[in-house]
Every structure is written in structure tokens, then in C-alpha cells.
Design a protein that fits this description.
This protein has 14 helices and 19 strands. By secondary structure, it is of the alpha/beta class. Bound molecules: zinc ion. The site of zinc ion has 5 residues, from loops.
């Protein structure tokens, strides 16, 4: 948008209503500033003199897509030690910005970052919010609250130190409450924790036990909610998933060994699942797998097979599922979340409508921003993707950002045909 009184009009498109799953044909959207100010039938649209018009005839108009799990400052490499050895701390800020822009360029106007070194991503969020650079709306956790067993990285001491900072180990109810307050002060929007070990963290990093005491998890949730934050929990093994859900944690990340009973509990509690199938797909790709230590290869194969079954169980039981990739893990690249949407159809069993809802309205609820984004209606922030092709007819359309003629964020055209065109005035 140029002048302040100029509206941006998305004219006569086929708008995907994420609430009903229906397409509203020949619909026009008027945007003023950051907000959607009018949505209705194109026939009843009244043009104003200074309107800037995007013709959307025959195109599919989607709410801006939501990516619920990434690590903007992670390497995407199976050789993290080498990358870290060659990368100065200050360089990570630019790498994270570039990764954030890849998400925006691929139609994801909101991205939840699930952990990096202290201070990095809250600072990036502020820079993007100031409009200095084009980037997605960031929802940030700052560094995670970890526990012994999460951070047994295979590698040199500096990598162990790194993981200690990315997932800080704290103990006891007071220690946890203090950590939650520290993150609030540092600018976190939510808390990231881990109740099980990770696939990549070596065989001593156990997937099958819960690492926190129940009272510690309950204190984390209580303190986070008191400060207006939600809690996301990395959990592969059943014990860790169950303890997190019981404690009232809001979103389960990965959920690899989820069973029917725990899925029922998640439905009852309203817990979200973010499957991150791209993470294991990345690890299982031939190029990456052969670079992993033999014991991690075994762990990866076991988890990969079981996790797809677990996600199907969750879907069939009616667990709320949001789209997130864990981008930043080896072979799991930023800007490819469209493939995770496809996986929701191909591997989980969703319809294309449900998969798009998982990446719009359900994602917005998962990141606690559904009062602002996730649906195209009057009063919401104008985060909008205009697609030349209809992803409801072919879900692979969302894998290629060139299919999107425009990506609008905060009422501004930021991307055209997969390329960022917004520069700070
Ligand atoms: Zn993660």
C-alpha cells in the first residue's frame, strides 16, 4: 500500500472459508492498514477512488498459512558441529532472518519458533514487527526449559554447552517458575519444554521416560498461563506425552509413540498435536541417514515407522492437529512446509480441506492467535495468500510457492510468485 488512505482490494476471488471448509466464490476483500475491513460478494463491492486492486478472478484465496514448529537458528545439517565451528554468534541472526523469509516466501505468514539460543528469536520478532525486514509473524519461545537426558548431544563439548543453553536444565517447582518468568521477561510468547529425549541426542537420551516430575510440569503450566503464555512440549515417548497432557500442556510436538488411550485424553483436554513428519522424513533420507551415528540410525528408523501410525491414531480419534515441520533439523529445510500439508493428506488421512484447516484456523488456535489470524473475515489481520491453482483439487499446489501470485502480511504485499518484493520504506 502506498498512501495511508489507499485500500488494498483482493477482487473477485474464490475465498477458502477456514471455519466451514467451503469455498466462497466471487468474493472480494477490502483491506485498510493491517486489517480486513470488508468481505462480501463481488457484486455488492463498492470501489473507492484510491483503491489498489489485485484481480483474483478464478484464483483461490487462502488465509495466510501458519507453521507451528520451526527452529529458525538451527543448521538443517547432519554435521551441526562443523557448521557451528564456522559460524560466529552474530551470523546466526542473519541466518535466522533468511530462514524466516523462506517461510514467508512460501505462503506462511505466521511461524512459531520452538527454541534457539537465549535472546536470538525474540529480537528477530521485534525487528520483523517493526517492519524493517519482510518476515512472517513470529510466535517465539526463546530457549527451552529442558531436563537431564534431553541434551546428551553426540559431539564436542562446545555442542553440549550449546544444547545446555538451548534447553536450559532447571529443577524443582521454584526453579521452573523462575525460568518461566525469565522467559517472559526475555520476550517469549510461549514456553517450550521437553519431557523426553530426542531422536538425535544419542542413545542415553531416552525417549521412553518422562524427565520432569508431575509437580514441575504443573507449575510450568500454571505460571505460564498466569503470565498469558501457552506451553509446547517436545515428546516422543508415551510416558512423556502422557505426563505433559495430564499437566495441562497445550501442544504436544512430535507425539511419535502416542497410543489410543492418550489420544482420548488429548481430545478430552483439548491438547493440540504438531506431528512434524518432515523431521523424520529428513532424517530418513538416504543422504542424511548415512551421516548419522549407527545407534541414532536405529533410533531414527524405529521412531519414523511408529510415528506415522501414532499420527493416524490421533487423527482418527479426533485430536486437533496443526501443521509444523521442526524445520532446522537435518535435511528439514525452511520454506518447505507445503510438503508437511501434503503429508497430512497422504500419511495421516486428512482431506485436503482438513489439511488446509490444520495450516490455517487450527494452526492459529495452536499458536494462540486465532483472535487475529487464521480466517478471512472482517476485523481480522490481513494475512492472505492468493493461489493461481486450487489446492483443494490438488494439495501439491501448496508445495510450490510459485503457484502463489501474492502473499499479503499485515495488509502489505510482501511476496509475488515466491519472491519477496517488500522492502522497508
Ligand atoms: Zn523442535
Amino acid at each position: 500500500m502506498g498512501k495511508n488512505d489507499e485500500r488494498l482490494i483482493v477482487k473477485n476471488g474464490n475465498v477458502f472459508d477456514s471455519l466451514t471448509g467451503k469455498i466462497k466464490k466471487n468474493t472480494t476483500i477490502a483491506i485498510s492498514g493491517k486489517q480486513i475491513v470488508w468481505v462480501g460478494a463481488n457484486d455488492s463491492f463498492e470501489k473507492e477512488k484510491n483503491d489498489q486492486v489485485i484481480k483474483a478472478d478464478g484464483k483461490t484465496v487462502l488465509p495466510g498459512l501458519v507453521e507451528s514448529h520451526v527452529h529458525l537458528a538451527s543448521t538443517c545439517s547432519a554435521q551441526s558441529e562443523r557448521v557451528h565451528l564456522r559460524t560466529k554468534t552474530a551470523m546466526w541472526h542473519y541466518i535466522a532472518l533468511n530462514n524466516a523469509q523462506k517461510h514467508l516466501a512460501s505462503g506462511f505468514t505466521c511461524v512459531r519458533d520452538c527454541g534457539a539460543m537465549p535472546g536470538w528469536i525474540p529480537s528477530l520478532r521485534r525487528i520483523i514487527d517493526m517492519g524493517i525486514f519482510a518476515g512472517p509473524r513470529l510466535v517465539v519461545s526463546d530457549n527451552g526449559i529442558g531436563q537431564w537426558g534431553n541434551q546428551e548431544a553426540i559431539g564436542p563439548d562446545y555442542m553440549l554447552d550449546y544444547y545446555q543453553k538451548v534447553g536450559e536444565v532447571l529443577t524443582g517447582v521454584d526453579g521452573i517458575k523462575h525460568a518461566v518468568r525469565e522467559r517472559k521477561r526475555a520476550g517469549a510468547d510461549f514456553i517450550k519444554t521437553l519431557t523426553t529425549g530426542g531422536v538425535l541426542h544419542g542413545m542415553d537420551s531416552k525417549l521412553g521416560m518422562s524427565l520432569f516430575l508431575d509437580e514441575e510440569l504443573e507449575a510450568m503450566v500454571e505460571e505460564a498461563e498466569r503470565l498469558g503464555m501457552h506451553v509446547a512440549c517436545h515428546a516422543h515417548g508415551l510416558e512423556g506425552i502422557r505426563s505433559a497432557v495430564k499437566a495441562g500442556i497445550h501442544t504436544i510436538e512430535h507425539g511419535s509413540f502416542l497410543d489410543e488411550e492418550t489420544a482420548d485424553l488429548m481430545v478430552k483436554k483439548g491438547t493440540f498435536l504438531v506431528p512434524t513428519q518432515m523431521a523424520l522424513a529428513g532424517l530418513l533420507s538416504a543422504d542424511i541417514l548415512q551421516q548419522l551415528p549407527p545407534e541414532v540410525q536405529i533410533k531414527t528408523k524405529n521412531t519414523g515407522k511408529r510415528s506415522r501410525e501414532a499420527h493416524k491414531i490421533a487423527y482418527e480419534k479426533g485430536v486437533k492437529i496443526a501443521v509444523g515441520t521442526d524445520a532446522g533439523t537435518p535435511g528439514n529445510f525452511h520454506g518447505t512446509t507445503g510438503t508437511e500439508i501434503k503429508f497430512m493428506v497422504e500419511n495421516v488421512g486428512m482431506t485436503p480441506v482438513e489439511a488446509l484447516q490444520a495450516a490455517t484456523i487450527v494452526g492459529a488456535k495452536c499458536v494462540h492467535l486465532d483472535d487475529k489470524i487464521g480466517v478471512i473475515e472482517k476485523g481480522k489481520i490481513a494475512d492472505i495468500v492468493i493461489s493461481n491453482k486450487n489446492p483443494l483439487e490438488d494439495i501439491t499446489v501448496v508445495e510450490n510457492p510459485k503457484n502463489f501470485s501474492h502473499v499479503i502480511k499485515d495488509g502489505k504485499i510482501m511476496v509475488e510468485k515466491g519472491v519477496i518484493t517488500y522492502f522497508s520504506p
